[in-house]
Amino acid sequence: MKKLLTLTALATLALSALAADYPLKDKPVTLVVPFSAGGPTDRVARDLSEALRKQLGTSVVIENAAGAGSSIGSAKVARATPDGHTLLVNHIGMATMPALVRNLPFKVETDFEYLGIINDVPMTLIAKPSMPANNYKELTAWIAQNKGKINLGNAGVGSASHLCGLLYQNAIETDMTTVPYKGTAPAITDLIGGQIDLLCDQTTNTSSQIEGKKVKAFAVTTPKRLTTPSLKDLPTLAESGVKDFQITIWHGLYAPKGTPAEVLAKINAALKAALKDPDFIKKEEALGAVVATDKRIEPAEHKKFVQAEIAKWTPIIKAAGVYAD
Question: Tell me, what DSSP letter sits at residue 28?
Fold first, then answer.
């Protein structure tokens, strides 16, 4: 027992010593993305990595570890050495994993250090280019005429598009055949090809497809219309008659539990500076994302926000009876 206490004390001293030199110049900071490369969270993380590199003065690399409702990559970070060199960029999945993943190997609320919200990403309801409807009213009529035959794609169980699809079906009281893909890219490819009918996905994925007229866009999921040039003419689902329908996908930054406070303070300061980086803001705005500027950039408020989101999404997911594992 005494030997164990000694080893623990030595480990604590080692981490404390590391804090003064963080980040180590010969060791990159790794941002683990619990989704496939090329997806919306991956794009946000890659934009953020460059902005963080400027602030931390060391290389920041991306590691994709997709699967099981984002729990595989998240577990990797929860188990990582708490030295600030392995961080997690995750979206709303942090709030949905407790309900989506059975036997989750960590606790979202206690096994991570919260570092701040990065952005909020609106979502768009889009359809195959051959869709006969040209506005939301016509789409509503088409849905009514084709009940039982509609295919609604998503990027996989637990993905943002899956959650939006669940919420949309509940809101319009219409069941559709959900078609899960291994990532957003194949889902959009099949939507463009007409293999699926509808998709509700983040503007980080859909803006260029909408602007290029490769898909038909019908509405956004925000309380107000967006100002992004390619999306500004789209009505909100709420104004189109879908009551109380709002969903934005937020992204946050996390470290393993036990990361020294001094390191956490340095990372949070770097994140705050990154969120003010003009290049980062420009990249996010081009994707329709809104960079966080509110109190959620503070660790305590970030955690409080996620706890509220867990309370919001748990009953919706349980009612749907879906699991990511």
Answer: P
Instruction: Report pLDDT digits (tens) over 162-200.
Output: 989 999 998 999 999 999 998 888 999 999 999 999 999
Contact of 313 with 163, CB cutoff 8 Å: yes
CB atoms within 10 A of CB 176: 21
Look up residue 57 and give its two tokens: 């003065």
Distance CA 310, CA 305 (A): 9
CATH code where residue 117 lies? 3.40.190.150
111 and 256 housed in the same domain: yes
At 205, is the pLDDT very low, low, confident or very high (cuts 50, 70, 90)? confident
Q: Whole-angstrom Cα distance, residue 78 to residue 238?
A: 38
Q: Are residues 48 and 93 in the same domain?
A: yes
Residues with Cβ within 8 Å of residue 265, at least 6 apart in sequence: none
Between CA 119 and CA 91 the distance in angstroms is: 9
Residue 195: which CATH number?
3.40.190.10
Question: 188 in a domain, yes or no?
Answer: yes
* One domain, residues 279 and 215: no
- Comparing 7-11, 109-113, 223-227, which segment has the lowest mean pLDDT? 7-11
User: H helices within 22-135, ranges in order?
Assistant: 40-56, 71-78, 93-100
What is the structure's pLDDT at 25?
Answer: 85
Question: 155 — alpha (psi -120 to 50), left (phi > 0) or beta?
Answer: alpha
User: Which H helix or E strand runs over 131?
Assistant: none
Question: Cβ of 319: how many Cβ atoms within 10 Å?
Answer: 11
Other Cβ atoms closer than 10 A to 231: 20
- Cβ-contact 274, 260 below 8 angstroms: no
Please check whether residue 64 is in contact with residue 33, taking contact to mean a CB–CB distance below 8 angstroms.
Answer: yes
Number of domains in the chain: 2
Distance CA 135, CA 316 (A): 28
295 and 261 part of one domain: yes
